[in-house]
Design a protein that fits this description.
427 residues, alpha/beta, Rossmann fold, 21 strands, 32% helix, globular, disordered N terminus
């Protein structure tokens, strides 16, 4: 837990971060990262790879760090004092952002042929890696092997996120984590730093410590034959962001997710399912929980029968008999023994958003419904932003458009405060 920023203990030792900037187009985001860290009194020194200097200049980085930028392993002046060893040891945390496929390969293979890789070999401090690369590069078996090896070696990861790439018509996992996410991931390694307050004043208090939060995310796939299925356009971004926000606030988190392309959040128990029936079973196994957030876009119907063979075109129009799927939100909200103390559902609508959400709140027995407009013009499904309305028995609170990460953090902070008040009232 981070100390209060006004505590005298903060003056004893200023936190120091060594930032290694890799050669990717996302390197420009490191300028904002440096600025945000410096605003919170954290000392930042920067090392840039040769490729990184093709995207941002050492002059720009140095202006923000108020320090020289290190680029060359064989710098005569620095190496008189064994500069790479000093750089690797004097920081409290080493952040690599963006971490390219090449940098990850060097780290996993133990290479030390430039200043950045030599520092990473020589450091005895925690290392936080924020990958960024083309989706196919990220999903390549070699990259995945390297990531697995690095995690086994104790390297910490944040991201990558899923979204549009710089290249036209390219999308998928590979976007650099946003600056607030990197800062949140750095927080546990900077015990004396108030940097979490740049994300939210309450994050540092970890109000969900000791609590269990269960979250559902993504779509469900309901098979109609061995190769076809009924699905929807949910990406799982909002549900995964909620799980990460709850974890950042101190909760033990169980994430039950349908088929998505998102990486499993680090530190969170993730259960993969395909169908609504499997999701309900996984949710029941995940109980008891203090808070349950049902953000998954569960298919309302499934095929009553699934043939063993693929349905063939014979000239006749096939008839698919649909039956209703189990209502996961209503099932859990109406449990007696294992009902979570706070149950939150989502209502994805294309019209009359608030009216339908109010009806859903009453019909399902939930405590809150988070309503959002998912019509094609909003670009919510698969996008990075969301506009939601928090519908409670007392009122409706409409939030402005914000990133799904911001929605998640704000929602979990509200849920934590609600849980605190209801628990106190019951005692």
């Amino acid at each position: 837990m981070l100390s209060d920023p006004h505590s005298p203990a903060l003056n004893v030792k200023q936190n120091r971060i060594l930032l290694i900037i890799g050669g990717g187009i996302a390197a420009y985001k490191c300028l904002d990262l440096v600025r945000r860290l410096r605003e919170q009194g954290v000392s930042v020194r920067a090392v840039m790879t040769r490729a990184a200097a093709e995207f941002v200049t050492p002059l720009s980085v140095g202006a923000l760090t108020s320090d020289r930028v290190f680029t060359d392993l064989f710098d005569l002046n620095d190496e008189r004092e064994i500069g790479h060893i000093c750089l690797s040891r004097e920081a409290d945390l080493v952040i690599v952002a963006p971490a390219t496929a090449d940098l990850l390969a060097k780290m996993a293979g133990g290479h030390a042929d430039d200043l950045a890789s030599t520092i990473l070999m020589a450091t005895d401090k925690p290392v936080l890696v924020a990958p960024a690369m083309n989706p196919r590069m990220w999903l390549h078996p070699a990259t995945q092997r390297n990531v697995k090896q690095l995690k086994n070696d104790g390297i910490h990861f944040v991201g990558p996120n899923v979204g549009e790439m710089a290249e036209r018509d390219e999308a998928g996992p590979g976007r650099l984590a946003e600056v607030p996410e990197i800062i949140a991931a750095a927080e546990p390694h900077l015990a004396n730093s108030p940097i979490a307050r740049s994300v939210t004043p309450l994050r540092a208090k970890r109000p969900l410590t000791g609590r269990h939060v269960l979250v559902t995310s993504g779509p469900t796939h309901e098979p109609i034959d061995p190769v076809r299925y009924i699905a929807n356009r949910s990406s799982g971004k909002q549900g995964h962001a909620i799980a990460q926000a709850a974890f950042a606030l101190g909760a033990r988190v169980t994430l039950v997710t349908g088929p998505v392309t998102l990486p499993d959040p680090e530190g969170i128990k993730t259960v993969h399912v395909e169908t609504a029936q499997q999701m309900l079973e996984a949710v029941r196994r995940g109980l008891p929980a203090d808070i349950a957030v049902f953000a998954a876009a569960v298919a309302d119907w499934r095929s009553a029968t699934i043939p063993r063979q693929k349905i063939k075109k014979t000239g006749d129009r096939p008839v698919i008999d649909l039956v209703e799927n189990p209502d996961i939100l209503a099932t859990v909200a109406n449990l007696e023994a294992e009902r979570p103390q706070h149950v939150i559902g989502f209502a994805a609508e294309t019209r009359d958003v608030i009216a339908y959400a109010k009806k859903k709140l009453l019909a399902k027995g939930a405590d809150w419904i988070i309503a959002n407009d998912v019509s094609s013009t909003t670009r919510v499904l698969g996008g990075d932003n969301n506009t939601v309305h928090v519908v409670t028995p007392e009122n409706v609170e409409s939030w402005p458009q914000m990133s799904k990460d911001e929605v998640a953090e704000r929602l979990m902070l509200r849920a934590a405060e609600h849980l605190r008040r209801t628990t106190a009232a019951a005692e």
